[in-house]
Amino acid sequence: MQFIHTDLGQRKGGEIVEVTLTSGANVRLMDSSNFSSYKRGRRHRYTGGLAKKSPVRLQIPSSGHWHVAVDMQGLRGSTKASVRVLPGMLHAIQERPLSDVPSLVRDDVPPPTEKEGETHDVFISHASEDKDDFVRPLANALMDEDLNVWFDEMTLRIGDSLRQKIDRGLANSRVGLVVLSPEFINKGWTNYELDGIVTRTVSGEQILLPIWHNITKQQVMDFSPSLADKVARSTATHTIEEIASEIAELIRSKA
What we know:
The protein is an alpha/beta fold. It has helices at 32-39, 131-144, 152-155, 162-171, 188-202, 217-223, 225-228, 240-253, and strands spanning 4-11, 16-21, 25-31, 47-51, 56-59, 64-71, 81-86, 120-125, 149-150, 173-180, 207-212, 233-234. The protein folds into two domains: 4-86; 98-253, 3-Layer(aba) Sandwich (Rossmann fold).
């Protein structure tokens, strides 16, 4: 019996064998013992079968010495075959909830310091360019979760001192959300707010939660390596509703 043989050598279980064919053929993935029986025309076990489409991908069942055999038994014509081994599939990412991350959350979320004015659950530091597409919808989603949110267009009034309002909002908020974006890192006021949040976080008065918006990890690292190393949520992988829900759960679980 004629067949095309590829010796895969020692392989790990879970790796993927990809076989590319020029026409339909029988494809068998076998360990050394079964390949020896196959060559002698004896009964053997294999993974695979008749492949009508190409490429064919077979997963190696367990670690060991493996072989691929391609033949036209019971078929007409001929085929050519090429074989390569791909890495096994990675496990699905399981992100820990914010309330379980020790580097982000202590045993208690600090209560806001009640000096003057209203107290807030969340202070949102952001660039004005990000208001329409993300920050305003996020603020609304947080308020839908019954959280008290410090958001400039909802809090500042004509004649207010911007710096005093920001300082008061920071002092009277439990969680400081920092919406990191390309626009944010080039702003003066946002950096002033960030410095205030970081200072209060280091002193244990506030929780800092970065949110990455339209920004890469490299950009965050170039701006602030310490922020890049913090647990964050990204608008590339989480919806506004999911982010708001997690923040609300964090605050309620530590109330």
